[in-house]
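Following the same procedure, sequence and fold were stored together, as reproduced here.

>
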Amino acid sequence: WDAHMSGFMTPLAISGMGKSSQSCQRLESVVLSADPAGNAYNEAWLQNLIDRHPDILLLEEIEPAFEAAVSACREMSVRSGFIDNLLVTPDGGIVVVETKLLLNPEARRAVIAQILDYATDLSGLDYAALEEAIARARKQSTFNLFRHVCPKADPSREAKFVDAISRNLRLGRMMLLIVGDGIHEGVERLSDYL
């Protein structure tokens, strides 16, 4: 029990487990800001963190099939806006991430409509259009999604990967995540209902 964290235990970073040089450091919380020009810890910072370290989302705890998701891109343009982070698994799973901080007025109910719009837009794409949109977001003239997500896989697996992504797009089968520094109660109730 920690009074500083409103009843939550303070997280610790432990390194050197089982070694004589083991260390333990208390992690301090940081204040996130909705203003991109303000605090260093804002939505862009959170998007970059997810892009560089998608494993922090602990997707396998939400749905084991989404383990080992790889960041495909940030700020991917779709008809209704820009997807903050798009991740893909080696088995063709698709993860859409929308980052919102509590200070952002859209952190309320609008964020749910926003991420549903993004999923709808994605479901209207085929594999080639998705790969092209990712290439534009990455500012790369050529991009191969299969090689990016499965760099060590046998090339003969590419057709199966393309089929899985195509099927998931067509069926609108994807994980939608709203990631931020907290959640408004109304948004939590809506997301639980959905």
